[in-house]
From TrEMBL:
Keywords: Coiled coil. Residues 79-179 form a coiled coil. Residues 1-20 are annotated as: Disordered. This is Uncharacterized protein. The keyword Coiled coil applies. It comes from the Eukaryota. It comes from Ancylostoma duodenale. The keyword Coiled coil applies.
Length: 237
């Protein structure tokens, strides 16, 4: 703004005659001349004019003042338009800065999203790998389960067969024991009967033996008695 004011004052000085420059300088320094209305411009005190100037010179000076005023108005209009242009450019600059900030934020978000996408892709790959491993393990588990079920069925069949065989052997053993018990019972009865018969026979044999022993004793006694009459007890020795 100071620069524009100095330019206006410099332009006004160039358009003012040399005889009036000294008397109008103070007015230009206060900027009254460039901002005053036209009727005030006409009522400038006569003391600001030189005494030797004629009316023609005064008219010339008035036209020069009008031209200078129009020039100043144009410069002011240009300054206003420039200020408006500067304001518009500043607003556009702020808008561009806002857009740049938004673009930077979007770029940072895009980079972060790209990083997140890469991480997501890596996690998806890891998940696919783990899913494949899980499917392989499930297939192996199914195979092992099938094998275990088959082995269990075979073991149950063998166990049932062994149980049936054991039951058969147990029945056979019971039958054999029963037969043996019956045989032992028959043999015991037969033994008892045989023992009873043996006792009778033994008793009969003992009776016969006893009689024979007595007869033998008597025979010997008589023999010794007859052979040895002097010793009657010799036969007892």
């Amino acid at each position: 703004m100071d620069y524009e004011a100095r330019e206006r004052r410099r332009s006004a000085r160039k358009n003012i005659p040399s005889s009036l420059s000294s008397s109008i300088t103070s007015v230009l320094e206060g900027q009254w001349f460039e901002n005053a209305p036209q009727h005030q411009m006409r009522s400038v005190p006569s003391m600001s004019q030189s005494w030797h100037e004629t009316g023609e010179h005064r008219a010339d000076f008035g036209s020069q003042r009008a031209v200078s005023h129009a020039h100043v108005n144009r410069r002011e209009s240009r300054a206003v338009s420039l200020r408006e242009r500067v304001g518009q450019l500043m607003r556009e600059n702020r808008s561009l800065q806002d857009q740049l900030a938004l673009s930077n934020a979007a770029l940072a978000s895009a980079r972060k999203s790209r990083i997140d996408n890469e991480r997501l892709n890596r996690l998806e790959q890891e998940k696919d790998t783990l899913r494949a491993k899980v499917e392989l393990l499930l297939a192996k588990i199914d195979q092992d389960t099938t094998s275990a079920c088959t082995a269990l069925a075979d073991a149950n069949a063998r166990l049932e067969l062994s149980r049936n065989e054991n039951m058969m052997y147990e029945k056979k053993i019971r039958d054999m024991e029963e037969e043996r018990r019956e045989m032992y019972l028959v043999m015991f009865k037969k033994g008892q009967e045989a023992a009873a018969m043996d006792l009778k026979e033994v008793a009969q044999v003992d009776q016969m033996t006893q009689d024979r022993v007595v007869l033998r004793f008597l025979h010997d006694a008589f023999y010794y008695y007859l052979m040895n009459k002097g010793d009657a007890k010799e036969h007892l020795q």
